[in-house]
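Case study B.
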Amino acid sequence: MSWLTNFYRSAVGKKAVMAVTGVFLFGWIFAHMVGNLKLYLGAEHLNEYAKWLRVMGSPAMPNSSLLWLARAALVVATWLHVQAATQLTLMNRAARPIAYGEREYPAATYAARTMRWGGVIIILFVIYHLLHLTLGVHVNPAPFIEGDPYHNVVAGFQIWWVSAFYIIANLALGLHLYHGLWSMFQSLGLNTPKFNAWRRNFATAFAAIITAANISFPLAVMLGFVR
Amino acid sequence: MNLTLHVWRQKARNTTGQFVTYKATDVSPDASFLEMLDVVNETLIEKGEEPILFEHDCREGICGSCGMMINGVAHGPIGGTATCQLHMRHFKDGDNIRIEPWRARAFPVIKDLVVDRGSLDRIIQAGGYISVNTGNAPEANMILVPKAVQELSMDAAACIQCGACVAQCPNGAAQLFTSAKVAHLGVLPQGQPERYERVVKMVEVMEEMFGSCTNYGECEAVCPKEISIDFIARMNRDYLVAQFRGPRSTILPPLFNTEEELVTNET
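Model:
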């Protein structure tokens, strides 16, 4: 196992870990977004889907076991992703102790340059999101009804600042994915001339799809399409 | 044309420097950036002041000596050129130009615009070579190399070790330099025996001194030899493969060490 610790100690290895955990988190976020589209089918569909998530895997596995496995994997992936990012950021700061008097960015995109603060916004949002819709802690004036996510979502999004926070966080997520989904190919060394143009297309498409769908939920509630 | 220069002046290592403003008058648009500095230095010498120290040698973009941040971009605004190949026609009369040395922990300022790029040599020393028996040069066609591979190797070998990639990288990373040096040997048959050992050694030394890559692509944009970040992906892949193969060996260890051992194991 020493090769594994050596590997994680290196910055190239950490970036590979960030790429792999990033892909996992991306896959999960995509599935989460697709599931949430049931909001448009009505209360019955969304609530039934929510109930299914709790019995997913049964009868082969006990109720909720797959859900908790997924949650554990998410915590581990997020932890590794954030830890590697933090350590690399510190390493990078140390590599240039004296800043330039003036500097331009001929190539770096806005998305690439906002990865770190974007990541912080996303983490803070995830904490709020879990308190709001998973744990049902009283983080906003909307009443929380256990087992009725449709009601909880709609009641929450009717408060303008809750919707605003969701929209801002998802724009940050979109930028994070726009750079991250492309960057992961580089970090893992997946680079072949035939396939390279598609890496950018892939990142742009999925960043756009996820952001647009996620933002549509609060907008639909605010505009009265979903009530 | 007349220009206002804001130049970083620093007397020696470990002293504090500051920007000093100079007027550059009657600059020819056909002058190179270094020639413009030469003219400014002439006037400084005439006034009895210390001239601005900057590194230069070939002045035709092949030696990699010159290099400075010009208005916040390594080697200036054009792209694909070293500072010596940048001409004053790319500036406008009355422009303010800020000139700074490369900034990185691994590149300490020696004086004014001159930095110590010896850290890059340390990366080369770690593995940027192939081990061969000396003697007569082998016949050139003994090992056939496909044209496309030759071209790929040359694209990487175009690196002149100027350090612009490090200077421009927001992370102060030397990934483009190291990956080019890893690749120009790693793609050729002669580089295969040490391919995985090489990448691990060079990355390890690189990471002792420089930052890490976050795929900004800034290095590629300022590289005077337009070396592609495709080589960085290649280095990452070789490094990951090397870790899976075992860190310091390219050949699987023999199952049996000696013939004797082989015999005893069979019986």
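The mean pLDDT of chain A is 94. The remaining cases will be described in the next quarterly update.
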